[in-house]
Amino acid sequence: MAEMLSQKNIEFEDMLKASNAALDDVKAQLKETEARLISVEQTNIELDQQLNLAELKCGDSDREIKELHDKVSELSNLVKASEEEHAISKCHFQAYQDM
Question: Any coiled-coil ranges, and where (predicted)?
Fold first, then answer.
């Protein structure tokens, strides 16, 4: 009976050692996973900052495009008005020469 108890005790000690080894492995995996999580979170923060900067630049570009479009429109209107004035002046000049 003592031999059987001793054998069971050895088996339980072996199981305990195996469980402790498995626990140590899980703890190591947990630390590695936590380190990866911290790294991923930092990368996420950096990407969010880059996205915010890109969105700001995009907004600035959109405003600049609108301003340039408005300026082109204004200049086109000025060119059109100048061409009309030129045509009128040309007619007046032609009429003056015909006199």
Answer: 16-85
